[in-house]
Automatic annotation (TrEMBL):
Residues 246-265 have a biased composition (Low complexity). WD repeats lie at residues 452-484. The lineage of its organism: Eukaryota, Viridiplantae, Streptophyta, Embryophyta, Tracheophyta. Keywords: Repeat, WD repeat. PROSITE patterns: CTLH, LISH, WD_REPEATS_2, WD_REPEATS_REGION. Residues 236-273 are annotated as: Disordered. This is CTLH domain-containing protein. It comes from the Eukaryota. The keyword S-adenosyl-L-methionine does not apply. It comes from Citrus sinensis (Sweet orange). GO terms for biological process: regulation of DNA-templated transcription. Pfam families: TPR1-like_2nd, WD40.
Length: 660
């Protein structure tokens, strides 16, 4: 029956009527001036809890604050407030919960494991922290690739991996004193509350007068700065949460590479330092830099890998993902493989002096590529995929078994000549050719996904970012291009140039590019300069120009943790630069690693392979065909970590510019 009351005539049922009422109330609330500034909850930062602790006891000693933190931690643990509990651990950094960290490792939550670890330490603190971050980055990358290929997760491997992490945690000076939770007397909470109240009461609003016998106003009320939108931290040590720069951590430099022998002998002049305020600031930081100079074999650990063959210059060098073997490709299109014997009990037990052997299968086969018909087309490139090696030296691409050295297949018969190739997710390959084209191909389905055109000269290198899902290409046209790996459209491009003149270098070949482990910063290597860009926009962030006497640059690569850049030069020097500042930390001279009697102007490193797990270990491929593995002395831990009183140090400057 229709209701006679006009206001109720639209009433049909309780649900719809309540919905209309809510809408009306919302409108009234929004229009009410008294309520308008109370409708949006303030954005409180992640350190709100620690900021509150600082607010209620700002004048206490550090020990008193830590006692309060432990008591709150104990209470949260008893009440099983898991999320709040571990949030407090990260914000206050007084207790590292190894069991909680293990849950992240064994469940494969690598982002959360990295975030939790970075609350207590960062990769720059010490070698233990660097190894932990590098291993997390590497494992995250490998499992992401496995997911793309629909491979099952290996939980046993994760459990074994945690055992290695536990050793590093227990030996890490940043974590050692945070592993045991103190036994707290609950009555201590009462005394702490009393101390807090003794301090707090005089500041309570409208309770006590101030020194001028006036009522305390809100502006006099004690507050914690930066409670909203910025962090407020109890300890003096800032929490530097930067992605450590992965490893085989995600950058493809340890998966595939390309090298053109004919471009390494050209001399070029160094570009002058940029005449700008930015440049001046960068140079000012480096004026007082102390450089560690290594001249003798006794000043570092070095290993000459055994070799009874004469295969010509080493033009490519690559470590396996786990670092247990090393593959070299020579100018004569032959390969060499060295294996290391390790008991694998701990990451800490590996060092450069472990026994290595030049592997030769029982078949006595030699992995040899097809050679280009014209020597000037001798462009060498290869990539690892499990126990298979994809390789080319200007001819067809060969697939080898690393167990038997058998040639399993050949494809891509020139022309065009394959100049670079790289493995991508979803069983895809990207091939660069000397006709400036890039082919994205799926060997499983034998279908071409895309053919990319954007360069004016041959492709020199390819690099893939898993986190950005973009492919970056470099060419002999001094150009970098960024390609979307979904629709394969070109996102942007940029030409190599000098910071000072803005001009493209006379020699236009970009020899190599590589993603930093953070998968954002891109390293570009030219024979006269090294540049760093941010993907996917190719924002040019910094440029490094070595001394003229060291030019041309023959190769450069990030360490596995992204902490430093190794640069080899035709002078024979290997220079170690700090990634964040581009300051020169160490210079390793040819006399420190080359055999006596072999040193000459024609002997120098052509390629560098960074170890995927040990950030201070590198392998050098020389022009005489030999391979040397080097790392710092055990007492020095890192390259360039020496006191300034050491006799091997001297002041230096170098030409680097950085945009900030």
């Amino acid at each position: 029956m229709r209701r006679e009351n006009e206001q109720l005539s639209g009433y049909t049922n309780a649900t719809s009527s309540r919905a209309k009422l809510i809408d009306s109330l919302k409108l009234l609330v929004k229009e009410n001036r008294i309520l308008q500034d109370k409708l949006i909850f303030p954005c409180v930062n992640n350190s709100a809890l620690s900021s509150l602790i600082k607010l209620i006891c700002p004048s206490f000693e550090k020990e008193t604050k830590e006692e309060l933190i432990y008591l709150i931690h104990q209470f949260l643990n008893e009440e099983e407030f898991k999320e709040t509990l571990h949030k407090l651990e990260q914000e206050t950094r007084v207790f590292f919960d190894i069991n909680y960290f293990r849950e992240y490792i064994t469940s494969g939550e690598w982002d959360n494991a990295e975030k939790y670890l970075s609350a207590f330490t960062n990769m720059n603190d010490n070698t233990y922290s660097a190894k932990m971050f590098s291993q997390i980055q590497r494992q995250k990358y490998l499992e992401a690739v496995d997911r793309q290929q629909k491979l099952p997760s290996d939980f046993a491997e994760r459990a074994h991996l945690f055992d290695d992490f536990k050793v590093l945690v227990e030996r890490n000076p940043m974590l050692q004193d945070k592993l045991k939770f103190p036994s707290m007397d609950k009555s201590r909470l009462l005394s702490l509350i009393k101390q807090i109240m003794d301090w707090w009461v005089p500041y309570c609003i409208n309770v006590m007068p101030n020194a001028n016998n006036e009522t305390i106003s809100l502006k006099d009320f004690p507050t914690v700065s930066n409670l909203r939108y910025a962090s407020s931290i109890l300890t003096d040590k800032p929490n530097q949460e930067g992605r450590p720069l992965d490893a085989s951590s995600g950058d493809d430099s340890n998966d595939s590479s390309c090298f053109n022998d004919n471009n390494q002998s050209r001399e070029s002049t160094s570009l002058p330092d940029a005449d700008s305020a930015v440049c001046a600031k960068s140079l000012e930081k480096s004026v007082n830099l102390k450089l560690q100079l290594i001249n003798e074999p006794s000043e570092c650990r070095t290993l000459l890998l055994p070799d009874n063959s004469f295969g010509g210059r080493v033009v490519r060098l690559i470590y396996s993902h786990s670092g247990d073997f090393l593959v070299a490709l020579t100018q004569t299109a032959t390969h060499k493989l060295w294996k290391w014997q390790s008991n694998k009990q701990s990451l800490e037990e590996e060092n450069v002096n472990m026994e290595s052997q030049l592997y030769q299968p029982s078949s006595k086969l030699v992995m040899t590529n097809d050679i280009a018909a014209d020597p000037k087309d001798s462009i060498s490139c290869f990539a690892l995929r499990g126990s298979h090696l994809f390789s080319a030296s200007g001819g067809k691409i060969s697939i080898f078994s690393l167990e038997t050295f058998q040639t399993l297949a050949t494809f891509a018969n020139p022309p065009p000549i394959a100049t670079y190739f790289i493995l991508l997710p979803q069983d895809l390959f990207a091939f660069g050719f000397d006709d400036s084209s890039i082919l994205v191909h799926c060997p499983c389905t034998k279908k071409t996904k895309a053919k990319l055109k954007g360069h004016q000269n041959r492709i020199t290198c390819l690099a893939y970012s898993l986190s950005l899902n973009v492919l970056v290409s470099s060419g002999a046209d001094a150009q970098l291009c960024v390609w979307d790996a979904v629709g394969w459209k070109k996102l942007c491009s940029k030409f190599l140039h000098s910071f000072q003149t803005g001009l493209v270098p006379e020699t236009t070949i970009v020899n190599h590019i590589q993603f930093h482990p953070d998968q954002i910063h891109l390293l570009s290597i030219h024979e006269g300069q090294i540049d760093v860009y941010e993907a996917p926009t190719l924002n040019h962030t910094s440029q490094l120009v070595p001394d003229k006497m060291d030019l041309p640059i023959t190769y450069a690569t990030y360490s596995c943790d992204g902490k430093c850049i190794y640069v080899s030069c035709k002078s024979g020097h290997v220079k170690v630069f700090d990634t964040s500042t581009l300051e020169l930390r160490c210079q390793i001279n040819l006399t420190a690693y080359a055999q006596p009697g072999t040193i000459s102007l024609e002997l120098y490193p052509l390629v560098i392979a960074a170890h995927p797990l040990e950030p201070n270990r590198i392998a050098l491929g020389l022009t005489n065909g030999r391979v040397h593995v080097i790392e710092p002395l055990e007492s020095e831990v890192e390259w360039g970590k020496l006191p300034f009183t050491d006799s091997r140090e001297f002041s230096t400057t170098f030409g680097s510019t950085a945009l900030e």
